[in-house]
Amino acid sequence: MRGVSSEQIRPVLLPGEVAPDFDLPALIGGAKKRFHLRERIAKTNVVLAFYPANWETVSARQMAEYQEQRERAEVVAISVDSIMNTTVWEREIGPLDLTLCSDFWPHGEVSRAYGVFRETSPLAGASERAVFVVDRKGKIAFSRIYGLLELPSFSELLEALRRV
């Protein structure tokens, strides 16, 4: 994401606010590519699923559920781990047909822009486990932060998508 400085850290984005655009390295169906939010929302509503870290049990369960439900929603998962770390992790738990983005450099820039970067322990330097639904107009339609050990409800995401 270009143009967001660390001084612009803000509270979590709420429904009705404009979703910050970003361009991140990603694994898309297992292949290394770039993911640009504006290009994708021009075609469909998108679920942005921030998760704290690769190699973490709840994150693996979360991605497995998104993989199972991939026909029902466009999910883009985002962590602050490097794309190389994400590649190895995806091979371990996958294969996944999801988009897995790396918010590694500048570290946590996208997480900060969405208000979900963890500045304090536990897991300082990671993102919260948080979900946003971004509509085709680029607005946040749903946002929620979950507990670090809480698995987000997929039915809740589907309900949010139905309301868009």
Q: In a few lines, what is going on in this structure?
A:
This protein has five helices and seven strands, in the order ββαβαβαβαββα. The protein has 164 residues and is of the alpha/beta class.
Write the layout of secondary structure elements.
Elements: E1 23-28, E2 31-36, H1 37-41, E3 46-50, H2 57-68, E4 75-79, H3 83-93, E5 99-102, H4 109-113, E6 129-134, E7 140-146, H5 154-163
Parallel strand pairs: 3-4, 4-5
Antiparallel strand pairs: 1-2, 1-5, 3-6, 6-7
Description:
The protein is an alpha/beta fold and 164 residues long. Helices cover 26% and strands 24% of the residues. The chain has five helices and seven strands; from the N terminus they run E-E-H-E-H-E-H-E-H-E-E-H. A seven-stranded mixed sheet has the order 2-1-5-4-3-6-7. Strand 6 and strand 7 form a beta hairpin. The radius of gyration is 14 Å and the shape is globular. The two termini are 25 Å apart.
Q: Major beta sheet, specifics?
A: 7 strands, mixed
> Which percent range fits the helix content?
25-40%
Low-confidence parts: 1-9
Rg, Å, rounded: 14 Å
Mean pLDDT: 92
The helix/strand series, from N terminus to C terminus, equals: EEHEHEHEHEEH
Strand order of the largest sheet: 2-1-5-4-3-6-7
Residue fraction in strands: 15-25%
Shape: globular
Number of strand segments: 7
Q: Helical stretch count?
A: 5
What distance separates the N and C termini? 25 Å
Determine the structural class based on helices, strands and strand pairing.
alpha/beta
